[in-house]
Amino acid sequence: MRVLGIETSCDETGLGIYDTNQGLMAHALFSQVKIHQQYGGVVPELASRDHVRRILPLVKKIMIESDSKARDISGIAYTAGPGLIGALLVGAAVGSSLAMSWDIPSVGVHHMEGHLLAPMLEEEPPDFPFLALLVSGGHTLLVAVQGVGRYQILGESIDDAAGEAFDKTAKMLGLGYPGGPKLAKLAEQGDTTRFRFPRPMTLRPGLDFSFSGLKTFARTTWAKYGADEQTKADIARAFEDAVVDTMAIKCKRAMKQSGLKHLVIAGGVSANHALRVRLQTLVEQEGGRLFCPRLEFCTDNGAMIAYAGWCRMHDEGKKNTAFAVKARWSIESLQPVTS
Ligand code: KG4
Ligand code: ZN
C-alpha cells in the first residue's frame, strides 16, 4: 500500500508518500514564514490562500521524486484537525478530490497523532507502550500510548501551549516570528545564573502545565532590567531553562506514575536542543530510552501524515466518504487501530 499524505493545518504545506515495502519515499514542504513574518504571526486567510497555490505543484513534485504514477497510490491521507479551518479545508478538499478521481480511499488524520507517530519514520522506532510528550504551537500533551489510537492524556496545558509561550515571549523580546527557534538561539548566549524563573505547577501534584505566567515573568523582568542585548539573552535563557526544567519534572513524574520507561517527544518544540539533551539525561537515569523525530519532522510536515494515514487506511479508508475538518479534536477520542 502506498499512501499520499497532505498537511495543511497551519502555515506549512507538507506532502509525503509512505509505502508499506519501501517506507518513506518522498516528502516536500513549503513554509509560509515569509508571508506571515510582516504581521508577527499567522494570518489564517493568507495561510489558506497560499496552501491553494502550493499544494498541487508539491503533489506533482513528490510523485515525480518517488517515481509514482496515479495508479501506484492506494490511499490519500489529509490532516482533518485540529488546526485552522480554512487551511484544513484546502488539504481536505484536494485530498478527497484526488481520492475520488483516482477511485481510492481517503482518511482524515489527527494532526497530533501525526506528530506522535513521527518517530516511527526513524531507523530505530519505539515499541509500544511508551509515554509521549507532544509539544507544538497549539498543544502541550503528556500521553500514555498503548498502540495506534490507544491514547490516554495524563497531563496538558491549562493555558498557553509550550510553543505559543516561546513565540509570545520571543515577540515581547522583539525577536519576530516564528519566535521559538530564535529565542532558543539567543538563549545559547544567555547567563543561566542571572535570573531564575518559576517552574509552574511543579510544587503541587499532577501532570498539567501552565506556561502563560512565564511569559508575564519575562515581560516584568525585561521592564525592570531590560535595554541591552545581554539582558535579552539572559531572559531568553531563564525562560528556556524554566520550560525545559518544568517539562523534565513532569515527564519524570509521569514515568513514575505510569510505569512507562520509554519517552517519545514530538511537535515543533521537540526540535529544541536544550529540551532534547535534558530529557535524554532523564530517561537514561530512569533506565529507558528517548525517541525523537529527525529535526525536520519535529515541526509540521507531510511525511508524518502519510505515515499516520497508512496506519489507519485499512480500518477507516472505506468508510470515509465525505470530508469533515475540525478546529478542535481530542486525541483521546480516536479509534484504536485494529489491523
Ligand atoms: O508542530 P509545529 O510545527 O506546529 C504546530 O502544530 O503548532 O510547532 C510549531 C511551534 C512554534 O511555536 C515554534 O516556535 C516551536 O514549535 N519551535 C520551537 C523550536 N522550533 C520550533 N520552540 C523552541 N525551540 C525550538 N528550537
Ligand atoms: Zn504541528
Automatic annotation (TrEMBL):
GO terms for biological process: tRNA threonylcarbamoyladenosine modification. It catalyses: L-threonylcarbamoyladenylate + adenosine(37) in tRNA = N(6)-L-threonylcarbamoyladenosine(37) in tRNA + AMP + H(+). InterPro entries: ATPase_NBD, Gcp-like_dom, KAE1/TsaD, TsaD. It is an enzyme of class 2 (transferase). Residues 24-307 form the Gcp-like domain. Pfam families: TsaD. This is N(6)-L-threonylcarbamoyladenine synthase. Its EC number is 2.3.1.234. GO terms for molecular function: metal ion binding; tRNA N(6)-L-threonylcarbamoyladenine synthase activity. Keywords: Acyltransferase, Cytoplasm, Metal-binding, Transferase, tRNA processing. SUPFAM superfamilies: Actin-like ATPase domain. Coiled coil: none annotated.
